Amino acid sequence: MNVTGNTILITGGGTGIGRALAEAFHALGNKVIISGRREAVLKEVATANPGMAWATMDAADAEGISAFAGKLIADHPDINVVINNAGIMKNEDIKAAPDYLVTAEETITTNLLAPIRLTAALLPHFLKKPKAAVLTVSSGLAFVPMVATPTYSATKFAIHGYSMAIREQLKGTSVDVIEIAPPYVQTTLQGDHQATDERAMPLDAYISEVMDILTNQPDATEVVVERCKPLRFAEKNGNFDQVFAMVNGSHS
């Protein structure tokens, strides 16, 4: 992937990793559009970054995603990159079944169906571009699940598999498929406490390493920072049980 000269949509671009990626790509001179459900948050980020655009999108609205993509292409015909970043992460008590299904289904809709739907809506346009890319944010928990968040972990497992499969299908086209797998990062994904948790990787350090990989390894298909490698390669390294215990002894 080229890190300059793009028009990039970043979902969930109002906060956390999404905002940080948006600002990093914006600083490199890319045209960046951020999306999310909260208009006020998006406006605040765009105002802080002159030239950045924004548009609201509800990840739970299947028909709305298709309409959103159509308007996005009309308003920004040069769009050639999407970063599927929007996601939610909530604890679930399986023994409280069926009550936890509300959380499970919301998580699947936001974390898995939304990126699949948005990619499907944008892909015909991307295939006409000389260079395009679909980036999807998974998690270290795609490789070592967290017991407290089974559906979140499952959606990230699925995103990993989906990225691998469509990458192979799109081989030989103009569209790169890249998976970004963060470790436990200082964001508000699971609440305000996470943003200051010393066990989590500082957000600025994480984004710096991600951008370094994307810049210096333009053919990378997975963006896995050093902090995430113990999870990504736990099975390969033969220490899955130990890493699983580490992840589930505390937040990961």
UniProtKB/TrEMBL annotation:
Residues 6-181 form the Ketoreductase domain. The keyword Oxidoreductase applies. GO terms for molecular function: oxidoreductase activity. SMART domains: PKS_KR. The keyword Cell membrane does not apply. Gene3D superfamilies: NAD(P)-binding Rossmann-like Domain. Keywords: Oxidoreductase. It comes from the Bacteria. InterPro entries: KR_dom, NAD(P)-bd_dom_sf, Sc_DH/Rdtase_CS, SDR_fam. One of its GO terms (cellular component) is membrane. Pfam families: adh_short. Coiled coil: none annotated. PANTHER family: DEHYDROGENASE/REDUCTASE SDR FAMILY MEMBER 7B, DEHYDROGENASE_REDUCTASE SDR FAMILY MEMBER 7B. Belongs to the short-chain dehydrogenases/reductases (SDR) family. This is Oxidoreductase. It comes from Agrobacterium bohemicum.
